[in-house]
């Protein structure tokens, strides 16, 4: 059994997703990170379906990924991935809203 020094950031998402976020952060370009961020965002959306109705869902998920990656992933990059996924599903963010 493996023991970790730090507590999990989010028990609903889980330790494996947290380790995945840290591994994504080690990739050297946004283009390489993009497909893996989409997967991670999908995992978070499944773990937190209540966030689908949140007005700041993109920032909420970006904040969680930032914490899970120990501050190594850029929140704006993650928020953009969330927005792209939502736009593909027909939900568009207000362009006036600051990100």
Draw up the topology in text.
Elements: H1 15-25, H2 30-47, H3 57-68, H4 75-88
Helix pairs in contact: 1-2, 2-4, 3-4
Summarize the structure.
With 99 residues, the chain is mainly α. 56% of the residues lie in helices and 0% in strands.
Describe the structure.
The structure is a single chain. The model has no long low-confidence stretch (mean pLDDT 91). Helix content is 56%, strand content 0%. It has helices at 15-25, 30-47, 57-68, 75-88. It has one domain (15-88). It is globular and about 45 Å long. It is built from four helices and no strands. The longest helix has 18 residues, at 30-47. Helix 3 packs across helix 4. By secondary structure, the protein is an all-alpha fold.
Features:
99 residues, mainly alpha, 0% strand, globular
Strands, count = 0
Form type: globular
SSE ordering: HHHH
Give the termini separation: 41 Å
